[in-house]
Structures are given as structure tokens and as C-alpha cells.
Structure to design on (1012 residues):
């Protein structure tokens, strides 16, 4: 891993040059970068210096340009769905609302897709966060309609989940339980989907390099692996799907 | 569930007529069928009599015409991958070969995709079963190359897994362990992928029916849900992917 | 469930009398109470009024008098161990400390036993909470000795885990990740140990009642089920084991 | 691991002498053996030659003399319980009987305890195998009483599970599904119970050796770790509990 996102100094051109020189000194002809946005930017910098690179999208947050899917996302979703299932197992008369904070950085992909998968009653995403007063109103209505238990998924980028808990406690009769999944979402063995796609991407990566194509992000688009230039990848955005949000509202009502 | 595959008598036209009459007598306007090939044939029969139907593909075997994916397949794959991971955990000097029998009826979808996901050394599928003498030769070569442990996935439609075990024991120095996953593959909570796709298919199903479209299979093709006429679905075959088999050979070598 | 802990009004003698009358009006001869301290107190109150009761200890917190074990504790421990295992899977150069908050009310049983099971580097229990300055010193020493990753289990009764995170961030170079397991620990299917002990306790309960013994807590002591009078149960305390704490220090060093 | 059970030649005194000499040549003062019966016999042989040894009981089969519990048993039980839970998830009108073969060598510990934990309708153990005609009669009665689904746990030492399947198919209207768990039972991360007991046994082992006590099996008896001489361990048998079998009959009726 380049871990460029973690090393802000990699934005420094001298550092990039040094990295390039080290790679060349070790006779490394091609660099396969596996990571998220920051990693791709690192690959882009090295490509500009003349390095032959390829980037495989890999972050649980699914928040990269140029691809509809990043490796790890399905694994993380399964972890969230399993966790919410366990939380739903337990309910009692006083704590009928469970808040579950999930990751996703500035995007609501994990929250929204996991919400669909586990039938969350409310999902709070950074792209369009429901005001907390609306959350409280929604909770009351939900329980009036007979639901015994409401699960609120909070994307880390939308709200501080502790604040959501405090707000609901103050403005309703509910005292929500709070689970913060944190790095739990980043572990565990890969799901079948991720393991298969990783194998396919590795194969595509080598095939492309051996055929002289490089400096691409391996985008996953409509079920196919597509090599996308870094420039295009930066511009090609796949935001959360408005339709998913609508479907969630229907399911949870 | 119609469970038509389980009720051969449903192939009888009188039985179909009776079913149709019962549905009509209960003022049922639309019938949403969730199941595999047999269920779709049942839906087709009722459609011919005038019933408005829709079929959602659902079988762990992924062996239906008209769709690249059937609900339940991803869940089953994750179960197989988890099981093989546990089997790999244990190895000892004498039992260096593990045979794992998986389901799939007459198709090798589960075996092949799970093989890719868990890096099985050998996968035996009904579409093109490797002769058992080749399996033995392959095992010997694999271990000469330094692999300590080989996993053989046997699709139920390819061989009797007990026979494979006996054959290997007779023709090599290995005494393989045997695991038959059986109905284990049909249980457990749905994976995130299956839960989300089920929600999307339910939505698509209702939208289509409300717009006057019916008697379709909801095919999943290249990441999109496509309504396919029953007739077309019968003809549109998605056999196991030759490329997957090649990729598996590369990975396991 | 009596859920007496949740209904403070059950401490009111009139309410108790009313409950007793309702039970008698329904010709209920024996009441088997399954729960924690509060439930046992409820059973004690009804017993004083003449009801024949028996209490089966059941709370994930393992914090009842009269028994070394309460049903649910083993299941919760397995959940925590699985979660910490996943959190350990992921580590990187900047976030080398993971804080995991576990339940346990005013006792450190879950934190301490789970800490032993997953090899936590630091466990903070309410019975004897390590000062946070010592935690910081310990973290630095641990990493100097070459450990790449430290897990801190915080019992909910010991500290606010958010405060622990903030303190460490302020006083060290570490920026700990935070996971709050919450009600996740109360769900999931019962572990084999809990399921078997539940079966044995049910059997013991019926045998005792049919032999005229009642108003007892079914204590689990040194591997055996022992009927303990409510009075004795209140007095017989099984605090966290000093030896476990010592063993943990040895393991994590 | 000595893997003595796997190396029959270790029963040869010359081989034992050679092993002893190698240990001494490497200045090894104490040998901690982790394993089952065969491993303990190996330790006993080396002890007779003058080696200082200690044996920690570790086999999923729980079939060692001198201890009520062997490390790994609880982990294996949880795997079986999880598997049976998944198998129970799926049932249909024709396949209402599921056969699940579990390990255990010549003992029924896994089958019996897992049967209690998952509420198996029938458990076949080697110590006292129910005749197959009785199994068939029992199945018919069970379903007459209204149970939709029966699970039969077959210990590998009791019957060939394939034979049980064939017999039931021939003598009843049921066509049982078959799952053979095999080495699946030997993998996975350790359960909390096993991990904690392993830590405690390691500690006890070192304390004893440092205090001059050696050549013992660390027996687990009534919740306590007890050093047992190898001689005594060979004689002290803990067969399957008749009471467990009775309790199982009550639960499954």
C-alpha cells in the first residue's frame, strides 16, 4: 500500500520524485496500487513522472470516482447487516429505538445500502441528512403505526451519533441504545462477492499491463470491469442513488 | 410458493386449471411467483390460462434461464466460502486433501464461483467434469510444487463425493477428508447483496404490474433488472463461464 | 419476563400484591422467573406473599449474587471476541490503538473475561479502573516493546469510552479508533454452552418444583447447578477474579 | 505437536529414545504436549525415559481420560449448533428429515452435547446406538405429533450416515437430506470458553513446572484445573452422561 491518504507529504512533488526514483532503482516496471481516492492520486502522481501504474479500487466506503463499486464494500455491508440483525434480536419496552453508526467518510453508501438490506426504519446520510426534528416525528409516527422497534443508521459523515441519541432522548419519550461499529466494519474475511471480484480484477490488471495498457483505474460499471483513465475517473462520479432512498422509504413505512 | 417442482402433478393440465379456478375464486388478480425453473414453468402454465403473473428468480443453484443471477446464490456462496475457510484452518501431515461437496443440481455455478472465491485447487463441475485420474495427477503435482493442502470442490451434479474420496485414496497416497455441506447452504440470513436485490426486485415487480406489464421473469442482467418473457427466458441460457474456469486454473496453480 | 428492573413501581408493595392476585386468579401455582437481579427481587417479593417461585439467572452481565454464571454471558463473550478479532484485522500506521466499549453494568465481568479470551492489551473495569494516565503510559511502553496494535476494552461502568479516546488523543501520539458494541452483545443465537445450561436449568427447575422445593435461585457453582435461597443469593457475591486480572497482565505483556 | 497418534512408529521404544535424545541435545528441559490420547501416550513414553513433561488436553472429540473437558470441544459444539440452525432454516414438504454427521471418534460427546444445544430430535451415539428401525418408528411418531422437521445427529462412530439415510428412505416415506460436517468442525477461531481456558491452562502449566511438578495431564474437573498423573488419567474415564441422554429425550418429545 502507498497509504498516500495517510501521508499528506506524498502531495509534495519532491517526495513523489523520491518514491519514483526508489521504484526505478529497484527495477520495478509496474506498480499496482490497491486503495481509495488518496491511493489513486498517489498513482496519478507517479504516472505523471513516468511510472507505469494500475489502480484497483479498494475501500469499504465505496466513495471513489470512476467506479460503481470498490472492493471491501460488500464485506462491510454484510458486517453491518449481521450487526443490525443481532441488535434487532433484543428489544424491550423502554428502549425501542436503536442507533447504529456506520462508516462511509463523506458518503452515505454504506448507510443507505445497509439500510436497504436490513430494513432500517431511518437512514441518515451526509448527502442529504434528515433534520433531527423530522427524525423524532418519524419515530413517533412509526411506533404509532405499530412498529415495536426502530433502527436508525447514522453515517459517520451525517451526524455525530451521540448527538442524535441525546436529541432523541430530549425530544421524545425514547431512550435509544447506541452502537458504534467503527473498525469492526473493516475486518473479517472477504465476502464471496469481494473475493471473486478481486480475482477478476487481478486478472484484468495483469492482462492490461501485459498488453501495454496502464495508468488506469479498474472501474466496475454495470457488472463489467472497465479500465478508466485517472483523469476520467476523477470526473466520473457515482453518488448515492436517489432511487435507493425512495425504495428505503417505501420499505420502512 | 407454488412448489411446482415438488408437485409433478402440476404438469397435469387439469391440476393447472383447478389452481387457476381457486385463484380466481379468491379474487386474486396477480400472482407473484418466487422460485426456480419449476416455479417459472408453473407460472407459465397459469399465464396461459389467463392469470396475470410475475416470476422472481430465487434458487441457490443459479441455474435458471433468462437471468444471470437468482436470489439466494450469493448467500449460499458466502456459506461455502466460510465453510472452506474453516476446513483450511486444520491440516495435518496425513490428510492434506479436503473434499467439499456443494449443491447446484445439474449446474456447476456454486462450485465454480465458490472455488474462485476460496481459491479451491480443483473444482469438479457437471458441465465438464475433470476425469478422476486427472484429479489424482493434479493433486500430486500440486503438492510437489509445495502446496501443503488442496481443496477439491465437488458439485453434486458432477460426481458422488464419496466415490471421489475412494478413488483418490486408492490411486494416491492421500486420504482425503470429506465434508458434504448439503442443506447448510440453503439456510442462514440473506447476504446484503441478496437482501438488497430482493428489495429492488419487489419494487420492480410491483411497478411493472401496476403499469400493466405481466407474465415476465425478472432477469438480472449486467447489473440491471430486466423483465423477460417466459418464452424468451426458457431460451436464454447463462451457462458457467469458461473464463471463470480458466481464471481458477491460474489462481490455483 | 417480569421485567421488574424496568418497572421501578414493582418495588411498591401494592403493585406486588396486585401481581400476586392476578397470578392466583389465573390459577398459576408456580412462577419461573428468568432474569437478573431485579427479576430475582421481584420473585422474592412474590414469594413473601406466598407465591411459589423459582429464578433462573439470565443476564449477559454475569452480575448476580448466588451464582458464578448467568445465562447469556457466554454468548455475549463470543460476540465480543468475534468483534475484537475483526477489529484487529485492520491496522495501519496511524491508528494503532482500538478502544472497544463493552457492557456489564457496574461489573467488569464481560470486559475482563473477553479481555482474556481475545488477548486485550488493556482492560478497564469499574471495580478497579486503571487511571487514564497509566493507560497512556502503558500504551507507549507496549508499542516500544514492539506491539503494533493495542486493544483497550472499556467496561461501560468504568469510563465513558469517548472520554478515554479523547484523553489518549490528547496525551499521546495515538488517535484511537472507537467501537461501542452496545446491544449487539445482547443478540445472536445462544452459544452451545448457554443452550445446554439452559436445558439443564429448565430440567432442574421442574424437578425441584415437583419435589416441593421452591423460592430458590438456580446458582451455577463450580460446574454444578445448586438451588440457593433468595436470602443467601443476595449475600453470596462472586466479584471479578483478581487472578484473571493478573493473568491478563501476564498475557498482554 | 508430537502428532504421536499420527505416527504409529512412536510406539517403538527406539523411536522414543531417539526423540528423547534429540530433545536433550537441544537442551530442552520441559516438554509441553498439547493434544489428545495419543499425544498423552507419547508424553508418558518420554516421561518414562526421564523427560519432564506436561500435557494440556486438546481435541474437539472430548474423549480423553483424566479430564471432563478437552480444549476445542466448545468451539466444535458452537460450529455444529450454528450448522444445524442453518439446516433447520430450510424445510419443505418432502424433505422433512435432516441427517447431520458429526465427529467424535469412538465417543458420542459432540453428538450428545450438540444435540442438547440445538434440540436434535434424535442423536445416534456409538456408546449405545439406537437401532435404525427404532429411528424410523421415532421419526413417524414425531411427525404424527406435529413436528414439521426432525434433525438426526449421527456420531461418526455410531453409524455410516449414508447408510442411515438409505435405511430411512427405504423404511419410511421420508427422503432425508444429508450433511457431513467433517473437518469443518475442527476450524474457526476458538470460542471464548476455549480461549479463556487455554490461557488458564498455560498459566497453570508454567506454575506447576516452575514449582517442580511435572508429568501430569491438566485435567478440567468440576470447573477447576487439576494436575492428574498420566497413570491416573488413563484410568479415570468420563463417559457420556446418561442424564444428558435422558434430558435430550425429554426435550425432543
Amino acid at each position: 500500500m502507498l497509504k498516500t491518504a495517510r501521508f499528506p507529504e506524498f502531495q509534495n512533488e519532491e517526495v513523489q520524485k523520491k518514491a519514483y526514483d526508489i521504484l526505478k532503482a529497484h527495477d520495478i516496471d509496474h506498480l499496482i496500487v490497491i486503495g481509495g481516492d488518496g491511493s489513486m492520486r498517489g498513482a496519478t502522481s507517479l504516472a505523471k513522472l513516468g511510472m507505469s501504474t494500475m489502480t484497483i479500487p479498494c475501500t469499504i466506503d465505496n466513495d471513489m470516482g470512476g467506479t460503481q463499486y470498490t472492493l471491501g464494500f460488500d464485506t462491510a455491508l454484510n458486517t453491518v447487516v449481521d450487526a443490525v440483525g443481532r441488535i434487532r434480536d433484543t428489544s424491550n419496552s423502554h428502549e425501542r429505538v436503536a442507533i447504529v453508526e456506520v462508516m462511509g467518510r463523506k458518503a452515505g453508501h454504506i448507510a443507505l445500502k445497509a439500510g436497504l438490506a436490513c430494513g432500517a426504519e431511518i437512514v441518515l446520510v451526509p448527502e442529504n441528512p434528515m433534520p433531527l426534528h423530522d427524525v423524532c416525528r418519524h419515530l413517533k409516527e412509526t411506533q404509532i403505526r405499530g412498529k415495536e422497534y426502530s433502527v436508525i443508521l447514522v453515517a459517520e459523515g451525517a451526524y455525530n451519533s451521540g448527538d442524535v441519541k441525546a436529541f432523541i432522548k430530549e425530544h421524545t419519550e425514547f431512550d435509544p441504545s447506541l452502537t458504534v461499529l467503527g473498525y469492526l466494519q473493516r475486518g473479517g474475511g472477504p465476502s464471496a462477492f469481494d473475493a471473486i471480484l478481486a480475482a477478476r480484477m487481478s486478472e484484468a490488471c495483469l492482462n492490461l499491463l501485459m498488453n501495454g495498457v496502464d495508468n488506469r483505474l479498474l472501474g466496475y460499471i454495470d457488472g463489467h470491469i472497465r479500465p478508466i483513465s485517472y483523469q476520467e475517473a476523477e470526473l466520473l462520479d457515482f453518488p448515492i442513488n436517489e432511487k435507493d432512498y425512495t425504495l428505503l422509504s417505501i420499505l420502512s413505512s
Q: What stands out?
A: Chain C is about 45% helix and 15% strand. The radius of gyration of chain C is 21 Å.
